[in-house]
Design goal:
The chain is mainly β. It is built from one helix and four strands, in the order βββαβ.
């Protein structure tokens, strides 16, 4: 999995992406970060292109 930071309006948004196949977006719950979903993302990455964004103010 590769961690990146991107922004369209100047606000940095971190995300992790990895794998190959159909796209799957995993969104963390209210008080967690994308790191919470890392074990699931790693398991899905062998079949899917997994994107795990850190929501603003959380990652």
């Amino acid at each position: 999995m590769e961690k990146k930071v991107t922004s369209r309006d100047g606000t940095p948004l971190a995300y992790t992406r990895g794998g190959d196949g159909p796209a799957v977006v995993l969104v963390s719950g209210a008080m967690s970060t994308g790191a919470t979903l890392a074990p699931l993302a790693a398991r899905l990455a062998d079949r899917f292109d997994v994107l795990v964004p850190d929501r603003r103010g959380r990652g």
